[in-house]
Write a structure and sequence with these properties.
Elements (H helix, E strand, L loop, with lengths): L19 H9 L4 H15 L11 H12 L3 H4 L7 H11 L4 H26 L4 H10 L1 H9 L5 H16 L8 H16 L3 H19 L3 H33 L7 H9 L26 H8 L9 H22 L3 H11 L5 H5 L2 H14 L12 H16 L6 H26 L6 H10 L4 E5 L3 H12 L5 E5 L7 H10 L4 E4 L12 E3 L8 E4 L2
Parallel strand pairs: 1-2, 1-3
Antiparallel strand pairs: 3-5, 4-5
Helix pairs in contact: 2-6, 2-8, 3-5, 5-6, 6-7, 6-8, 6-9, 7-20, 8-20, 9-10, 9-19, 10-11, 10-12, 11-12, 11-18, 13-14, 16-19, 18-19, 19-20, 21-22
Length: 537
């Protein structure tokens, strides 16, 4: 007899491609996923103008790397800090003539729709009926809109790849077909290429879940299939991942997964008294927009030579603070997140050891624990945990539907409450970020008309200045952003630093030492209220 896997029956998946008639049949049966997907896509397109200028600190670097791949400068584009997948996916659109920022938004739209598809499958696997699943997917629309519109970086991409990986790993067919393990390895490698941290997560979570299922399985044939799945999955993962590591080693002469962990370590345990982005710095190479194209190099230049490894007590205290920060980040997904996690854990208490090892909720809880664990020694941010927040959402829906003491009406009310709770923070984020930096492209256009190009620095506001430089460059060479001076420098020191770095223009937003020297000439540029431009040389 086939072993059931998960808290309830995990339904088999149809392998047939839906025709147009089958699509309407689904809608007639109450499966409104096609409509939900269209609502999400239309909402994204309608709301995009409100976020068309929204960039994060990392965005210009990803776009610059994508531009390099699009122009065929593959060797120059290889970077140990910025994972390549988002740039690879944007590069064909840029090469076809799309604006780099438009390409990034198109990728965000596609990623959000893929995430909705992955969540639909995960909810199906949790045994949630079609009508309730429709409500839960509808509740995810603001979540994916916020993740994709307010954070145009790879955090959502890696979350979606891990959702698809989780679906394959929890499938009952994983015990019957070793190709499921192979596909898990491919998705794990893709997740690593989207975000370096996924390498360690997959390398721990995938073998652990396979071994748990192997220990729970009684059938010898299925145990052998699981061993083959493990071998094929790890082989595919390591083979694909090592190709990128070989590219990094070939360019930089050192074996590395990526530099993000080293940078975060230097950021957290920095005793120099200054942030890595404080102080003028040359870009890593001539085509770079700023020194932020290589953050580790930037941090190494700022680090104190006396800085040593943290002590045991300091490390333990940081782990404790970050564990609390993880709960807060999950709780920001929904006020019910802690209750959902507690309910899932309590539901496992009465299971036998073998049943526990085979349970889907147990494997999802393992993922929710392992996902942030690697960050605990450094820092935790909510965007690192998008995958975990979406898993909690699926767990919440599953717990509601498998609470036998509730009536159908009570379950529907609980599902609606669950949807609203997960939508609150995304709606707040969408509102808070609407129109953010909308004046930056206009400022860049005015500066371009005034002939401001070359090497630029600013008094304060690294991000705003970097984004202004990005729009001023128009995705081409000719503009270099040198950064902002250290806050402890006086006007003479700032001026000397500007001359040493051959700075052409100094932007004064009004929060620092302006002008850095009395003999600097201020440009008369109309339409730039609150911003003064000084010609340095």
């Amino acid at each position: 007899m086939e072993q059931r896997f998960g808290p309830s029956c995990v339904q088999a998946r149809s392998q047939k491609t839906l025709s147009g008639a089958a699509l309407w049949t689904l809608i007639a049966r109450g499966d409104f996923f096609p409509i939900t997907a269209m609502v999400q896509a239309c909402s994204f397109l309608l709301m995009r103008p409100l976020y068309s200028s929204l960039l994060k600190t990392d965005s210009p670097s990803y776009l610059g790397i994508a531009q390099g791949y699009a122009e065929g400068r593959w060797y120059d584009a290889i970077n140990p800090y910025w994972p390549p997948l988002v740039s690879w996916l944007a590069a064909p659109l840029i090469r076809a003539g799309a604006d780099p920022l438009d390409a990034l938004h198109a990728l965000a739209l596609a990623t959000g729709l893929a995430g909705l598809t992955a969540c639909r499958g995960l909810l199906t696997d949790c045994g949630i009926p079609m009508d309730i699943r429709g409500w839960l997917l509808l509740g995810l629309i603001p979540v994916f809109l916020a993740f994709s519109l307010t954070n145009p970086n790879p955090d959502l991409l890696v979350a979606v790849l891990l959702l698809f990986y989780m679906r394959l790993l929890l499938s009952p067919r994983c015990t019957e077909d070793p190709r499921f393990g192979l596909a898990c390895g491919v998705l794990g490698a893709a997740a690593y290429l989207a975000k370096t941290y996924a390498f360690l997560f997959f390398l721990v979570h995938f073998p652990l879940v396979i071994l748990c299922r192997h220990a729970a399985e009684r059938d010898l044939l299925r145990r052998r299939t699981l061993r083959r799945s493990l071998g094929l999955g790890l082989a595919a993962f390591l083979l694909l991942s090592s190709a990128w590591m070989a590219a990094l080693c070939g360019k930089y002469g050192r074996l590395t997964l990526g530099d993000a962990g080293a940078y975060n370590y230097m950021l957290v345990y920095n005793d120099s008294g200054h942030k890595p982005w404080e102080g003028l710095t040359e870009p890593p190479h001539a085509r770079s927009l700023s020194a932020w194209d290589d953050p580790l190099r930037l941090a190494q230049q700022r680090a104190s030579r006396s800085a040593g490894p943290p002590g045991i007590r300091e490390t333990a205290e940081r782990i404790g603070r970050n564990a609390v920060a993880t709960l807060a980040a999950y709780q920001a997904g929904s006020v019910f997140s802690t209750a959902i996690l507690a309910g899932a854990a309590v539901g496992l208490a009465g299971l036998s050891f073998r049943a526990l090892l085979a349970n889907a909720h147990f494997h999802m809880l393992l993922a929710l624990l392992l996902l942030p664990a690697g960050y605990w020694m450094l820092l935790v941010d909510r965007r690192y945990l998008y995958f975990g927040i979406l898993l909690i959402y699926a767990l919440g829906g599953s717990l509601v539907m498998h609470t036998s003491s509730w009536s159908a009406m009570q379950k529907k009310a609980a599902v609606i409450l669950l949807c609203l709770s997960f939508a609150f923070v995304p709606l707040r984020d969408l509102r808070a970020n609407a129109g953010f930096n909308e004046d930056v492209p206009r400022i860049a256009s005015v500066l371009a008309d005034a002939g401001v190009r070359g090497r630029i620095a600013a008094d304060v506001d690294y991000d705003r200045s970097l984004h202004t430089a990005y729009f001023l460059s128009g995705g081409k060479e000719g503009v270099t952003f040198l950064g902002i001076p250290r806050p402890d420098m006086d006007g003479n020191q700032v001026h000397a630093d500007l001359l040493r770095h051959r700075c052409d223009y100094f932007l004064c937003w009004g929060g620092g030492t302006c002008p850095p020297a009395r003999d600097l000439r201020s440009l008369e540029v109309a339409g730039l209220e609150g911003l003064r431009i000084y010609r340095v040389r």
